[in-house]
Amino acid sequence: MSLAKTDFKIVVFLGAPGAGKGTQAAGVAQEMHMTHLSSGDLFRQAVERGDELGMKVKSFMERGALVPDEITIQMVLERLEQRGEQRGIILDGFPRNLAQAESLDKALSAGPYENVDVAVYISVEQPELIKRLSSRWLCRQCQTPYNYDGSKGAVSACAKCGGELYQRPDDAMETVLKRLEVYFRDTVPVIEYYKQRGTLAEVDGGGDVEDITARIVKAIGDSK
Ligand code: ADP
Ligand code: ZN
Predict the structure, then answer these.
(1) CA of 96, closest atom in ligand 1
(2) Which of 52, 132, 146, 202 has the most CB atoms lying inside 10 A of its own CB?
(3) pLDDT of 126-166, one tens digit each?
(4) Is 58 a catalytic residue?
(5) Does residue 72 line the site of ligand 1, with CB under 6 A?
(6) Would residue 21 show up in a list of annotated catalytic residues for this protein?
(7) Whose CA is nearest to atom 2 of ligand 1?
(8) In this predicted model, what pLDDT tens digit does every residue of 164-209 receive, in sequence order?
(9) Is the bond preceding residue 112 a cis peptide, omega within 30 degrees?
(10) Dihedral sign (CA 104, 109, 111, 114)
């Protein structure tokens, strides 16, 4: 099966750590039959496996720093080539700085899909981001996030797959502040980059998960 260009969308998700990119990318991908490609998940899986990539990226992630572009760009572009028979791709966590955005455009311009169709910016206020990150638990098996602030008894298992829940080491307060700093310095310029290209769609990231998903699905559907 070959897909005409218009049937296939390349979508970028932008937003601060804690904005809900991962949750929303998973939900929107399922609803719209798209592939969800999360650079953070790929790195975390490599660290869990303890392979060569994992060993290279571990210390950067633990510090809340960005993994060097050379490693990140190569990993994402390799994955982009294996896109499968889906309606599109959601890039979650990539590009995260201007150099990555430019590399992505350059790689896409050489292939059949040419450019990013829409960049969805999920906007959330900073106090809310910090609150969400410090109460975030994840399923070790399927990556589903849960919110737990310590008020409702012990955290048990994943409701979807029964997997063990854990807190990401980089969700510790000190690392959260570092990640936010990196976000404002390196990633916020990427929002402006897509705005100038006329492909930015800003979505309010507050409220119920399902409502936010609906806003994003609409924004992607409305993009040309
Ligand atoms: P969050 O958006 O909540 O900070 P992610 O799961 O997207 O979390 O990323 C976790 C970590 O993985 C980052 O802090 C960084 O070290 C690394 N990482 C993920 N994506 C990239 C990227 N595009 N470029 C460089 N490093 C990345
Ligand atoms: Zn699970």
Answers:
(1) 23
(2) 132
(3) 999 988 888 889 999 998 888 887 666 666 799 999 999 99
(4) no
(5) yes
(6) yes
(7) 17
(8) 999 888 888 889 999 999 999 999 999 999 999 999 999 999 999 9
(9) no
(10) positive
Position of tokens 């896109």?
Answer: 83
The model's confidence at residue 1, banded by pLDDT at 50, 70 and 90, is very low
pLDDT band at residue 3, thresholds of 50, 70 and 90? very low
* Surface-to-core class of residue 33, CB atoms within 10 Å of its CB (0-12 exposed, 13-18 middle, 19+ buried): exposed
Q: Is the pLDDT of residue 17 over 60?
A: yes
Residue matched to tokens 């994840």: 138
C-alpha to C-alpha distance for 27 and 211, rounded to whole angstroms: 11
Which are the contacts of 80, defined by CB distance < 8 A and separation ≥ 6?
A: 37, 89, 107
Q: At what angle do helices 21-32 and 209-222 cross, to 10 degrees?
A: 60
* Ligand 1 contact via 66 beta carbon (within 6 Å): yes
Closest alpha carbon to 62 in 149, 176, 140, 146: 176
13 pLDDT tier (thresholds 50, 70, 90) = very high
Backbone angles phi, psi at 102, to 5 degrees: -70, -40
165: which 2 tokens?
Answer: 């829940």
Q: How far is the CA of 34 from the centre of ligand 1 (A)?
A: 21
- Atom of ligand 1 lying closest to residue 182 CA: 14
